[in-house]
Amino acid sequence: MTRVAIIGAGMTGLACARRLVQAGLQPVLYDKGRGIGGRIATRRADGLHFDHGAQYVTAKSEGFATVLSELANDGAVAPWADGAGRNHIVGTPGMSSIPKALAAGLDVRQGMQATAVQPDGQGWRVQFEGADHPATHVVMTVPAPQVAELVGADHPLVAQIAGVRLAPCLTLMAGIIGPAAFVSQRTPDDPLAWIAQNSDKPGRPQGTATTWVAQAGLEFSLAHLEDSPPQIVDRMLPLLCDRLAVTQDRVVHAVAHRWRYARVTQPLGQSFACTPDATLYLGGDWCLGARVEAAWTSGTAIADDLLARIR
């Protein structure tokens, strides 16, 4: 019997699981968090909503375009004009609606952080704190730098993905009372590389405060990666207020989030990596590039390869 354990319920893990379920398998997804979706995330606080990870999704391939069309039919996504002449797809009422919709019908077990993945003679054993789960196949969708922690630094796959490079991103979420100067602003070389008026997106709650998400540029994020969240707020909030031409007394809410592995600066260059016997797979957006669709492509390719080998 084929027993597939998928570590991580982000887009890669969800795409892989959905394809396997369609083929009649019953994979189990394990995720360390209380929510699923990885960087396709929405934070809620004081009646405010912030998409503090991926801001939107787009589709280049017919397969992913079909997925987005199905999500649109279910009301989980809608188009958003970002104010700069670009049309994007966003989750409604938040980006987290996308992984939630994709997870429908899947066996997802949350609050389970894998501590090791080891061969056991009959397949693999995924270890968690106080428990372990056997599997014939394991799909790991963790960031590339975390693979060695689970399989050991001397595992051949660690050397195979050694060239992958990921970079951090610091994110500020702010609720500010006052007129909105713009919908979005992209300035790649600026300390605030991307600023989006979150409350302009469809389905977001409307209140007295406008919600903003500001994501720092690479240089700024690297320089302040180890700052505490309050310190990050202290550094980023004045910059945001300056861009919006408002004073800080108009701010009613401000928190920061550190994404340690947010940007793919050097991808693997192929959809996944796997052991010669194709029982241990590695995948993620880091295989192909910094797009949500890249994560979906990786997960789907893993599932297709696994199915082709067991049939």
What do these coordinates show?
The protein is α+β, with helices and mostly antiparallel strands. It folds into 2 domains: 4-164 and 268-310, FAD/NAD(P)-binding domain (3-Layer(bba) Sandwich); 165-265, Alpha-Beta Complex (Polyamine Oxidase, Chain A, domain 2), CATH 3.90.660. The protein contains 8 helices and 18 strands. A 6-stranded mixed β-sheet has the order 7-2-1-11-18-17, covered by helices on one side. Helix 1 (11-22) runs parallel beside helix 8. The model has no long low-confidence stretch (mean pLDDT 96).
Jot down its keywords.
6-stranded mixed sheet; Polyamine Oxidase, Chain A, domain 2; FAD/NAD(P)-binding domain; 8 helices; 5-stranded antiparallel sheet; globular; alpha+beta; 311 residues
Kindly summarize this structure in a few lines.
By secondary structure, the chain is of the alpha+beta class.
CA-based gyration radius = 20 Å
How many helices? 8
Largest sheet: number of strands, sense, barrel closure: 6 strands, mixed
* Structure class: alpha+beta
Q: What is CATH's topology name of the largest domain?
A: FAD/NAD(P)-binding domain
Count of beta strands: 18
What order do the helices and strands follow?
EHEEEHEEHEEEEEHHEEEEHHEEEH
Total number of distinct structural domains: 2
